[in-house]
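anyone seen this seq b4? input:
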Amino acid sequence: MSKLAEIRLLYETKVNKIVPHPIFDSRDLPKVKSDIYLYRVLEHSQNNVQQAADMLYNIMEWRKTNNVNDISESNVDLDILKDGLYFTRGRDIDSCLLFIMNSKAYIKNHRDLEAVKKVFIYWLERLEREEGGKKVTLFFDMDGCGINNMNLNLFSYMINVLKCYYPNFINYIIIFQMPWILSAGFRIVKEMLPAPAIERLRIINKDKLKDLIAPEQALVSWGGKDNYKFEFVPENRNIDTVIIEDDDNYSLGEMLRIKPPKVLLFETIGHKISSQLIITNMEEGIIAFKIRTTAPERYTVRPNQGILPKRISKSIDIIVLPGFDLSSVEKDRFLILSVNVPKLDMPQTELRQIWKSAGSSIDEYRLTCAVKVQNMSVKNVETNSLNEIKRSMDNEYNRIQNNLNSFNRYQILIMIIMSVSIFIHIIIWMNIGKKCTRP
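predicted toks r here
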């Protein structure tokens, strides 16, 4: 068996051991089938097949939990994008793109940390698409930074994400012009890095930069020849067309194909109650959609609105908020609305006006809610519990039986000792009697 086949087998085994089985984002499932991606995971795991299978599982779980596939320019903080905290420019000596963190653009407590982390993930996903999985070099521009520009929480998050969820993605980690006042903080960061990453870590100044980045690829502010001034450019995302399957539940003329078409099935996974909905734009043009529910206080819908190009699908996660149990969803209803729009980058003011004036041209799709019955899972759990009880009882029986056997052997030994003792006493008594009867 090849190592890639072994990784897949170990991964599937781990998935099947969990009851109920985890549901991952369908858009991530091709990663499991991709030999190229699995080679990345295997190399990242130092050729350890078991570690690679565990990492693959953790990647799938993390991406689903954090809705990574749905992170885009439409739902991250645009101010952070436009401030240039993160951007790309130039390439290193190995032709790997530079993913730059302009640390001066970060001021502690000035931006919401969670929003900054989300922008970081946006850029990682964008780089995966634009570079086709090729390695990038993480470049920390620390020139002119002070204490307020460094947040160990953010740095540790970035390192952990790259270490655990983006396999074999980093070529070099370059720390450029680090002020001495921040050196103690970076020693802490360095301790978080795995050994292979430390080997690729470079702390350099302007004089040594040319050893890693040619002057033509380096910004003027770094001592190079590139006079580029940052300006955020939206991603030109070329989304693959979704293959439309035959579906008896879809009627010609409808804007959307809905899966599931009528009933949303909710189930408990870990501590979360959720359901997943996939909508596909069946039009030749662009459509906008929004999702409503009869109980908005009970649900988080991600995303609850958006714009879809033609023949493109969108996965919608519907999550029951804490404090509500599984049985509470059955009486609720969801409504999906869709309308044609002229372009993808619609300003919100124009989009609101289209919704307001569309009238009868809006398509509506209604869904009821139900609880997913998992008889097999429950049966398996009950069977496992009964088997565990049986094993426990068998072990206890064997223990008692062993104790009884030991006790019986002990009794036999005692009887032998007593018999020998009585026999000796009789002989002694008879000898004493003989001596007493002599004249």
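The chain has eleven helices and 14 strands. Confidence is low (pLDDT under 50) at residues 238-248, 375-383. kinda curious what u guys think
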